């Protein structure tokens, strides 16, 4: 079949299918987000137009934003489908790098197709070509190497035959899953080749479930059988394996208390009797209490990020760690018993090895009593006050959400409010992008999630800083007719970083607008309602008393395919605190005694951290 490189690539994308959790088939690549420029409009752009009925193309307005939308799509489908983003060479391509970092840190699939400079070099230097002095083969796309699980530059059409199976492998592999970058030189996109028909035969990609080594399972079972205070930690790998129900049934059989990481949040409904609450800095005091007392931790599908482990101070130095993970890279961390395999299959294989073992009833009961204390604390934070707080906003959104509604955030103070305060009534209905904590993901990712989800309403919560960082995809979603609700909480600056800054003894500086330099006596402020309306959104201005009604109206608008923005002023310094420590770089010398006091506290906490690390 004689096709250009671009035509062959598009036909291959269309031929790839995926098996969803319910056994049905769907396109592996459900659509392409595109901004065309001279580096991709004629090659890949023409090929996509020829197949416009087979694979939809969605127009973005910022390259980073549309690639983040692709990431949000993948998360909302639990890695079963993959978003694609294409750009021209130069600044358009480099704008994708941040989104690649988000996908890489969060182990999410993303296919990036940036244009590249001419392989012939005949017209060099072309528009947007950087011309590195030291390397004639380099282009801006080499920046993707650090944030790609797989990178290739297609310099001949026939190279697709070898590279496309590797593309599919990485995007669908439970251990290696992450972003793939195929750099596509402008001239090669348009070159033709006689491709074998077999390259375009439909392929169904099923969930891979690698089984763990029997000896590792036996060692894990031995450690658990000797535990008096074991704790089950559920991470994102449980979600992507579709193992949520299996994990809960496993815990129920043995009376094992459950906590969740950021990526694993909402795998367990809030009122489950074994749910101790989320774990870590943005988690709950109840989950952290059990973690501190646990003698064995069974961590399933988590990369054990510092926010989960409180910089490795949340667990007792004497704890035994058992890690079940599809990626050996994560399973071997901190000297734990490494069980390398799929979460669903691994738990199913581990269960019969535990046989008649059960957790002491007094420890099982700790989950209920500890979480009751945390719930009482959150109830107080949700109580009405003179100024609306993040906790109150989250509580009102929570009260108005059903089991199929989907809630999102990414950066600032809202992750702590959602992770710690949300009360889930449905499984896997939260996306908190806190692997990369990318400002701007809140809006772009919500666009992707709204495209992916057929049931319920997507609500994204974000601060004024994230809104100003990347808001262009509000118009992209509004234009495309993918409705969601964006709740914009205006607290007049980067309030959570101001909290970190002043909480460690430093002076408030360059975070809250009151501490930022301006030559004006009265600097301007953003009218978020007017701005969102100008981008084609339905706007609902709210305060503490009107928020429930305005949010209900916004959900109705989102259900009709509209992007609905709720604007609200929030208190700048009221937070939900889980009581865990986080290591940050506090200076050893300072003219401020408050900084020196904070450094002394850090050194004390570091001693606890080192005791844990040396014990493992």
Structure description:
With 616 residues, the protein is of the alpha/beta class. It has three domains: 2-205, Thiamin diphosphate (ThDP)-binding fold, Pyr/PP domains (Rossmann fold, 3-Layer(aba) Sandwich); 214-373, TPP-binding domain (Rossmann fold); 383-569, 3-Layer(aba) Sandwich (Rossmann fold). It has 24 helices and 22 strands. The strands form five sheets. A six-stranded parallel β-sheet has the order 5-4-6-7-9-8, with helices on both faces. Helix 13 (328-331) links the parallel strand 15 and strand 16.
What is the strand and helix layout of this fold?
Layout: E1 2-4, H1 5-15, E2 16-19, E3 25-27, E4 32-34, H2 44-50, E5 57-59, H3 63-76, E6 84-87, H4 91-94, H5 97-105, E7 110-116, E8 150-153, H6 159-172, E9 179-185, H7 186-190, E10 192-194, E11 203-205, H8 214-225, E12 230-234, H9 236-241, H10 244-254, E13 258-260, H11 285-293, E14 296-300, H12 306-309, E15 320-325, H13 328-331, E16 337-340, H14 343-354, H15 361-382, H16 390-399, E17 406-409, H17 414-421, E18 430-432, H18 441-452, E19 458-463, H19 464-469, H20 473-480, E20 484-490, H21 495-503, H22 528-534, E21 538-541, H23 547-559, E22 563-569, H24 593-615
Parallel strand pairs: 2-11, 4-5, 4-6, 6-7, 7-9, 8-9, 12-13, 12-14, 14-15, 15-16, 17-18, 17-19, 19-20, 20-22, 21-22
Antiparallel strand pairs: 1-10, 2-3
Helix pairs in contact: 1-2, 3-5, 3-18, 8-14, 10-14, 11-15, 16-17
